[in-house]
Amino acid sequence: MQASLPALPAVTAPERGLPVLPELADRLAAAAAHSAPQPLGGGPELRAAACGYWSRRGLPTEPDQVVAAPGAPPLLLALLAAAGGDVLLTRPCAAWYLPLARIAGRPAFHVPVPAECGGVPDPFALLETVRRIRDEGGRPRLLVLSAADDPTGTVAPPEILHEVCEAAVAERMTVISDETWRDTRHHSGGTVFLGPAEMWPEHVVVLTDLAGALTPTAWPAAVARFPAAGRGPVLRTRVTSALAAVRAELAPPIAAAAAYALAEPGPVRARTAAAARLYGTLGAAARERLATAGVLSRPPQTGPYLYADLGELRTALAARAITDSVELEAHLSAALGRPVPGGHRFGDAPDDLRVRLSTPPLLGATDAERQRALDAPDPLALPGVRDALTEFGSVFSELADS
């Protein structure tokens, strides 16, 4: 058994998201003159806000369990460096997981996801992978999962998540739960979100990237919650030391905005709810157009992404000299005029004809257009959104008709 192959270079920087919430901009501007650096791992106000955020979600948290950093990638890199051993990832998984494992010098292995959802490994495949790693002399120590998933946009059912975490804990592994998109679930009556830390509090580190879900995508801020017992305190100390080595502290204006967002006052709650509704509306409309063209996709349940499988169009794609996800990425990026990363960037084999599709570009290129969609009772009735969806569907229909 061999570790994952090197990841290709990242497609782009984080894409443009929704307009900046005015109240967040005010907080950032008010702190712009602050010259004193933030304490490493986050100042008292930010860590207290993070404690409140998790406590409202059924995870009582003390400030000494919290570490903040300028974005989720630095936090995950520090975690991988601190924990040691081999890393297990899902297939597919977020595009930035595997490159960080390689930078940290940790062998990484992909485990396939179940049919029901992405973001978590199939429990039986997880146990088999762990056994094979150990038979070859490896030390599986970390499982990185995402119950509210990028890239698939799915939410893992609680029963599957429980099986996965039970298996990981039994194998003496620490779980890193990326919960960045948990607050943008499209329908409150859909799959209940139950985080791994609620099941196995002594074995789970929760990682939340604020950028995109609670703050603008260009404002890097993330927080991690460590267990109060078990390996938690040691891991937190090691992570803080790793962040100190690379001076990964938050800028004061970003920290002030992050603390405001984590406190979830009325304007932040309203924006999060509006974004979730908008993503749900766009995701359902985009999936409908994919289905018309014969493209498969799990129903998106959270966040702004869909993960499309064009395997049913393999013959038609081959007529256009598109035989793998690298060529599919190039074609769709050119046809849609924006990056459309192929499945090979998320751990899938290039022969699998898969891509991740992002819905915010359907709203228009300007903040004014995106704000109109946020405010509209029916964003699909807006001419710009309607035209963008028509173009989106026609690109895939043309591929199917080759």
User: Roughly how many Å is the radius of gyration?
Assistant: 21 Å
How far apart, in Å, are the first and last alpha carbons? 39 Å
Q: Could you tell me the CATH topology label of the largest domain.
A: Aspartate Aminotransferase, domain 2
Overall 3D shape:
globular
Question: Helical segment tally?
Answer: 14
Any idea how many domains?
Answer: 2
Number of distinct beta strands: 10
Tell me what portion of residues adopts beta-strand conformation.
5-15%
CATH class of the largest domain, named Alpha Beta
GO molecular function, one term: transaminase activity
Cofactor: pyridoxal 5'-phosphate
Family: Belongs to the class-I pyridoxal-phosphate-dependent aminotransferase family.
Pfam families: Aminotran_1_2 (PF00155)
